[in-house]
Structures are given as C-alpha cells and as structure tokens.
C-alpha cells in the first residue's frame, strides 16, 4: 500500500490497538518552585506541554494538591526555570516543532511577556541570575552555525538582549556565580566532549576552567551558594561520570562521588548544606541526599523504580522536587524531604485505563557477534509464556542516548494488544561507560546494526516468541537503525516503522541545521572527507534490499533530520514497487509532540503493526 497524508483529524476509529487511550495519559515534568511553596511544572494535559501550577503549597506526606494551567498556548513549552526566590518564571516556546525557541517571563498573577522576538533564531534557556533580574541564554542570532552567550534584563519590558561572548563555537551558559558577576559557560566540542569557561557577565575575556586532554563530558554544573566552588558532573579520565568539586580560586578538582555508574543529575540547597544527586544504574535512577559537611548519605526510596529528572530544591531548602517516570507509573512530580521521605505531588489521570495491567520489563543481556553482552529491557504481555508472541524491537535515538525504564504509552498499548517489546541499548548507547559509547563510531556504524540482528537470534531462541513475526521500530537515529536493519538483514523482519529517521547521511549532513553539523560529524563522519563512508552506511544506497512493509512518519518542520530524508527513502521504495506508507505532519518537527498528532501517528503505527504482526497472513 502506498499512502500520503499531510493533515489529520483526531478520529481514532482506525486505532485498532487503542494506542490513543494510552497517549491520553498526561505527563508532568520539569518542576520549578514558586516563592510561596507552590510548584510550577510542565504538563501536556491540555494536549501540548504547558505550564501548570499547584493551587496550594506542596507538603511531604500530604495528598497532591489540585493544579491548573498557567499558560494555554497552541505550541509546546519546552523549557522552564524559576528565578532564585521563586518570584518569577522564565520559559521557552517554539512554533510547530521548529525548535526556534523564544524566551518568555511570567510573574505569578501577571500575563507572560516575551523577552526575545526573533522567530528565525534559536534561543536556548540557560540560567537566571542570583537576584532574579537577568536570564542568560544561548542564541544563534549572529551566525546560524554557532551559539553565542547573551543576557537580557527581565524587569524592563523595553530591554534588548546584550551579547556576552561570541566565539563561533557552540556555547551554553549553565550557571551564574554567586555574586552575579560571572557566568559559567559550557563549550561543546562534540556531543561528548565539553569545556567550561568562566566569563564576566557583562562581557570580557573567558577563562578556561577545565583544561583536559582526551574526552570529558560535563553535562551539568552546580554553583555552590558561597561562590567558592562548582560541582561538576564529569567523566574526565574515567569510564563513568562522577561528582567533582572545582575550587574557583585554585582550579583544583576534588572527587566527591564516583560510583561504577554515571552520575546524571545534581542539585544543591540554597544554604549549600545538602547535595542531591541521581545515579543511572542500568537505566534506573538512584537518588541520594548527601550532607556536605559530614558526607552522610540517605537514599530517596519511596518512589517506584524508574527515572528521575529535573532535581530542584525549594527556596527554604527543605524539599526536593523531581519528575519520576517508571514503566507502570506515568511521569509525575514528586517531593522529598531532607530525610529522603518522598510524596507524589501531582496526580495522574488514567481516564478509562487501569494501571494494574501495565507491564514492567525484565532487564536482560543478550550475546552479540563479538561476544559482548547487549543490555535490553524485555517486555512481555500479561498472560504468561503460553502464547507465541510477535515482537517489536524498539530502538532509541541519539545515538548518544539510552533506552530507560520510563512509562512508554505506545509500548504499553502494544503489550495490551498481545505484542511483546524488546528495547535494546546497542553499542553506542550512553549509560554503560565511555568505551561502550564509542563502539559504533564512524566505520563501526554497522556493528550496532549487527547488535539488532543478534537481538533477533536471542528472541528466536525463546519458545514464547514467534520467529516469523518480529518487527523493528525507531525514532531519529533509531529510524536510521530501522532502515539499516531492513537493508542489512532483510530476511529477519516482518515490518519496520521509521519515525524521523536518517536515510542518506550525505544529504542529512548537508541539510541538517548548520549548528548541528560539526558535532554530528564527530559521530558519523565529515563531509567531504568521509563521503565514501557516509554513502556506504546510508540505507538509501541499499534500499532495493528492503522487502518488509515499511511505515515512515515525519514532521515537515524538522530542523534536525529534514523531511527530505523520509521523502528519499519512500520515493525509492515506491519506484521499486515496495510496500511503504508515508505520514507527514505539517505542524510538527523532530517527532510528534501535540497529542492529536500523536494519537493519529501512533494509532497508525498500531494499525500497521497489528496488520503485519497479529495476523500470520498479514
């Protein structure tokens, strides 16, 4: 079947697996404390992520208070911060998924106000100054291929953004110094190698804080309230990211915590006495509170095992807010006291669904061609091992990313429909050490695809799996993996689903946003030097090998993987007379964000997989 669509209704009549019911469950993320003890956060309860605010203070041990939306825009809000003291919110919003985010500010009780107004420019929210009057951000207004550092006065509606640092590099302000006179700026050399710079907030020469050789990822920086140090999450000179203290006067670094897993997030109380940090332990978050004076640690153990993010201390330092998502629990905001006792602070509306049938995965490892063990999450439908299940292998994007045990509505819908899901973290994934993350670089790209073939071997050896009904699905880089698997191992697959995936690495690198080209080239290869390699690993070059039915979904406004990638692979397959469907969403970018589009797009995925996997004749 060959099918084009460019606009959709929200009619779910073709949603045979009921995916739309699962996608109707709202997710709460990105907590931010207000001055009066209420919580602001992002929720897509109104179909697209907006700011919501609790009606009353959030108290550990008390039932979740009611909440209401603070904003009701048609487009997503993708970033949210509260100023120190909680008297002001700052947020970012793009248009139609184009990622050209504009920045806004809101004082509770007053309407939001835009503080940038350049719709052709990307603004990346950085940090609010200690006095709450200025926000630092990154912008590519000067040149499209680089991000400079800017600040803007939030208290003056007529204030224009002021440049702080411009170097033709990829810069992001990540913290202010305690006196408000300096900015800590992250410089991204690649996605996995960073420097930290100290820059005068009013402009001036930067000082390199973290000279190093080799690769060092520094995804988060926390400034201590006394102004004397920074606390870094860094994997410099080690396999896993650790907590490191950096003395700003001497530039000396001190190791604070180095578990045999990645530290992934950290937050310090306004008084500087307690540090909260999360560790990524085989995909699950372990959340710990450390008293800095004594080193005493307490675990936060009340929430279900899952993934924590967005750690934020209340302004009085008595409560830690974070978002928590687990396989059987949709994302909600939780709050812990300083003893590690936690309470869910926002409610989850399951509508007509019952959470009891939600499935948690088994963590497994399967062997691959070079005897490595590939970690994966194995989801089996309820009802035991008596059936002969079809399986979807669900591949994450990135590739510098990781499939985590979070609530996945499409996965749960597939399971309820009798389809098992295997979610592997093939070589190249983060979370398993620096060495593992680089096993798929450049000329080793297809080794990761071979890990998918090994997953099929593992599945076929299981008596509860139907070996003739295995499909592969993925988004972004995962979409490339789908196309690559269909071309390299065509006999293994009953179907494929490619969402915003790469089909041709040459045209991808030529047409992706210029600000992304350099960091992507470090992973995939560089034009024109590596053109032969890039062509060799491009699925488009071997599209004639694809025999399985394929569904392709893309957003017209995608700035990362342009729509042309989908159009190329579909046109080629159609010229060969192959079974391919294409859905294009006019008001989406890199993935589907708006709930009506998600219901339509993933409802179509459910129908497609139902036809191909639930009927042996399909």
What would you say this structure looks like, in words?
The strands form 8 sheets. A 9-stranded mixed β-sheet has the order 1-37-36-35-34-32-33-31-30, sandwiched between helices. Strands 2-3-4-5 form a 4-stranded antiparallel β-sheet, with no helix packed on it. It has a 4-stranded antiparallel β-sheet with strand order 6-7-8-9, with no helix packed on it. The longest helix has 19 residues. The N terminus is likely disordered. It is built from 10 helices and 37 strands. It has 618 residues and is an alpha+beta fold.
Outline:
The protein has about 625 residues and is α+β, with helices and mostly antiparallel strands. The longest helix has 19 residues, at about 595-615.
Sheet of most strands: 9 strands, mixed
Number of strands: 37
Helix content: 10-25%
Shape: globular
> What average pLDDT do the residues reach?
93
Individual helix count? 10
Task: Output the strand order for the largest sheet.
Answer: 1-37-36-35-34-32-33-31-30
Report the span from N to C terminus: 13 Å
The percent range for strand residues is 25-35%
Regions with pLDDT < 50 over 5+ consecutive residues?
Answer: 1-13
> Structural class of the secondary elements?
alpha+beta
What is the CA-atom radius of gyration, in angstroms? 24 Å
Topology, pairings included?
Layout: E1 2-5, H1 19-23, E2 28-33, E3 39-43, E4 50-54, E5 67-69, E6 77-82, E7 89-93, E8 102-106, E9 113-114, E10 123-128, E11 134-139, E12 148-153, E13 162-165, E14 171-176, E15 182-190, E16 193-200, E17 207-208, E18 220-223, E19 229-234, E20 242-247, E21 253-257, E22 262-268, E23 274-281, E24 284-291, E25 297-300, E26 307-313, E27 319-326, E28 329-337, E29 342-344, E30 362-367, E31 373-379, E32 389-395, H2 409-416, E33 420-424, H3 434-437, H4 445-460, E34 465-475, H5 477-488, E35 495-499, H6 505-511, H7 514-524, H8 531-536, E36 550-555, H9 564-575, E37 580-585, H10 595-613
Parallel strand pairs: 1-37, 32-33, 32-34, 34-35, 35-36, 36-37
Antiparallel strand pairs: 2-3, 3-4, 4-5, 6-7, 7-8, 8-9, 10-11, 11-12, 12-13, 14-15, 15-16, 16-17, 18-19, 19-20, 20-21, 22-23, 23-24, 24-25, 26-27, 27-28, 28-29, 30-31, 31-33
Helix pairs in contact: 4-5, 6-7
